[in-house]
Specification:
heterodimer, A: 388 residues, mainly alpha, MetI-like fold, 2 domains, three-stranded antiparallel sheet, 16 helices, 77% helix, B: 240 residues, alpha/beta, Rossmann fold, six-stranded mixed sheet, four-stranded antiparallel sheet, 10 helices, 37% helix
Chain lengths: 388, 240
């Protein structure tokens, strides 16, 4: 038996996807926006041809797990898993169209548990296969845009218009773009001061060894404060400040809103930036700094021409951590009136409308993934530039 | 060209360089040799102020180095180390051009100078665009020497430059250095712990122990009249 299983990960993922689709609803159909839906299985929700295609593809993945591993097989698995990922989404859109055509017009067709499990499993199968292929980060970074591009194409073609999440989008179309922009503003607006403060802190920790431990202890302490608590803690002092200094209030500084959010996000970003700055710079080969000094470079020239370029892969890794973290934390900032994608999430929670939660969460997840891929790629490019 | 006058450097209460005086004439090839920890590298590094002397005076071209702007001083002095220290993110040409660019030479002159140095060090012009990690150890140190010579300094400091190379490559590079010294007439202060290297290259050998110079003479004098048991041990029976 064990001889038949060559790839336990793929076996588990293929079985997971198949069981998910067999045991749980592919989509759920609710009479209206707020009522709980009824699970509809894949074969009841969509046409037999789509069901059969997905079933064959998943069985092929299952069969692949029993084959001796080789690069060709991994490539095939990666492509097949990517295709099934897109296929499942397309089938969900089609299912919604079919169910909506037979309905009253008020019903909501949402993505079901089976869909999410199957998508999760196929995406992981694709990532795992690319890992086994030892693809270069560049190729791995290209795979994501291909899958996302295919989904975007389907979205643009209206394939998902009947799904409830698309209907939530239609209902909130006017505010979506502005909240998305506001989310980006919160993230980038906190990143800039975090870099301006965090990098010098990291440098200072390197230059004055005695500063290092207390500094990182203090920044660590900030990280341990739950985000909701930190947002809330910032409200009273800022409210007092705005009341005491009307000029600041005129500038938009208030107890609630963007100001406490930007401050909290900046504080959370300081530790990863300062720590990676410190780690990156301390990792620079000392003989290179010595030879830069001996060539007659000034301390500033050594810093910008030698230390920063050589530390750049680690510096970019720090930037990646805080960007991804910031995109997630900015969702919570909607609680204190800072806006952003979190406002959909909290409205959705308040109304019990899962699809509205997803309308806020999915773009935030996509944004975080995109930032992660792009900055990983940038770090890899930087790493090659300093290879020794 | 270089003058040490009662130079002292103390680390943790121990004198690494102990009241050292030494004069090196223009064009002279002077080798500092001695056991590990005898203070030879520290002595060398005091010339371009990578190490600041605690007491005494060090002169370059008659000027007290402490009175000179440190970066300007270093740009006038070539420096080569055992680990080469080429910048891995720069091409070979950019590495060689380091000091000329710091001095603000026009780009055309920098380009000409890089080509000239690749030629002088018998390096293939094709490696100019390559990055240092693609070079062999011998090629890398040739680039290291080219970089030290780039701004045409009168003075070259070399800290065990060939210590990490295999014996054959080391011998080839020693010959190259002797040739370059003859052709350019640079003053060279060279640190090594290899007596054969010292005998082969030096006009003057200064034998150091515990921060002091125990004997400073031309190789033939050193071989004929070792002044000290340490020098005799260092020579290991050569010259007898």
């Amino acid at each position: 038996m064990t001889a038949l299983i060559r790839n336990k990960v793929l076996l588990l993922l293929a079985l997971g996807a198949i069981l998910g689709l067999a045991e749980m609803g592919f989509v759920s159909e609710a009479p209206n926006r707020l009522l709980t839906g009824r699970a509809v299985a894949l074969w009841n929700a969509t046409d037999p041809f789509a069901t059969a295609t997905i079933a064959v593809a998943l069985l092929a993945l299952l069969a692949a797990s029993a084959r001796p591993p080789n690069p060709r097989l991994h490539r095939l698995v990666a492509i097949l898993a990517g295709v099934v990922t897109v296929l499942l989404a397309g089938a969900a859109g089609a299912a919604a169209r079919i169910l909506a055509a037979n309905g009253t017009g008020d019903e909501r067709i949402a993505l079901g548990g089976g869909f999410w499990i199957a998508e999760f499993c196929t995406v992981l199968a694709m990532v795992d296969a690319m890992h086994r292929l030892r693809t270069k980060p560049l190729a791995r970074a290209l795979a994501a845009p291909i899958v996302i591009g295919a989904l975007a194409f389907l979205t643009d073609a209206g394939a998902f218009n009947a799904l409830s999440i698309a209907r939530e989008y239609m209902a909130h179309r006017d505010s979506f773009a502005s909240e998305l922009g506001r989310h980006l503003t919160l993230v980038l607006g906190s990143l800039a001061p975090a870099l301006v403060i965090g990098i010098p802190l990291g440098v200072a920790a390197l230059r004055w060894r005695r500063l290092r431990d207390p500094l990182f202890a203090a920044l660590n302490l900030v990280q341990t404060i739950p985000s909701i608590a930190l947002f809330a803690l910032l409200i009273p002092p800022l409210a007092l400040l705005a009341a005491a200094v009307p000029a600041l209030a005129a500038l938009g500084v208030h107890g609630i809103g963007a100001t406490p959010a930007l401050i909290a996000l900046t504080l959370y970003a300081l530790l990863p930036i300062a720590r990676n700055t410190h780690a990156g710079l301390i990792g620079v080969d000392h003989s290179l700094i010595d030879s830069a000094r001996a060539m007659g470079m000034s301390p500033a020239q050594i810093f910008f021409r030698v230390e920063v370029p050589l530390a750049s892969p680690v510096l970019i890794a720090g930037l990646r951590i805080v960007t991804v973290q910031g995109i997630g934390l900015a969702v919570v900032a909607a609680l204190i009136g800072a806006g952003g994608l979190g406002s959909f999430v909290f409205q959705g929670i308040g109304q019990g409308a899962t699809d509205l939660v997803l309308l806020g969460a999915l773009p935030a997840i996509a944004m975080a993934l995109a930032a992660d891929v792009a900055l990983r790629l940038a770090a890899e490019v930087a790493r090659r530039k300093v290879a020794r | 060209m270089i003058g040490f006058e009662h130079a002292i450097k103390t680390y943790d209460g121990r004198r690494a360089v102990d009241d050292l005086s030494l004069a090196i004439a223009p064009g002279e090839f002077c080798v500092l040799i001695g056991p590990s920890g005898c203070g030879k590298s520290t002595t060398l590094r005091m010339v371009n102020r990578l190490v600041e002397a605690d007491a005494g005076t060090i002169r370059v071209c008659g000027e007290d180095v402490r009175t000179l702007a440190v970066e300007a001083l270093r740009r006038r002095i070539g420096y080569v180390i055992q680990s080469v220290g080429l910048f891995p993110h720069w091409s070979v040409a950019d590495n060689i051009a380091t000091v000329p660019r710091l001095l603000g030479w026009p780009e055309a002159r920098v380009r000409d100078r890089v080509a000239e140095l690749l030629d002088l060090l018998r390096l293939d012009a094709a490696i100019a665009g390559r990055r240092p990690h693609l070079l062999s150890g011998g090629q890398a140190q040739r680039v290291g020497v080219a970089r030290a010579l780039a701004a045409d300094p009168d003075l070259l400091l070399m800290d065990e430059p060939f210590g990490a190379l295999d014996a054959i490559t080391r011998a080839v590079l020693q010959d190259e250095l002797a040739r370059i010294h003859k052709a350019t007439g640079k003053t060279i202060l060279f640190v090594t712990h290899d007596i054969d290297e010292a005998l082969r290259l030096a006009d003057t050998i200064a034998v150091m122990d515990q921060g002091r110079i125990v004997q400073c003479d031309a190789p033939n004098v050193l071989l004929a009249k070792p002044a000290d048991p340490l020098v005799r041990a260092l020579l290991g029976g050569r010259g007898r």
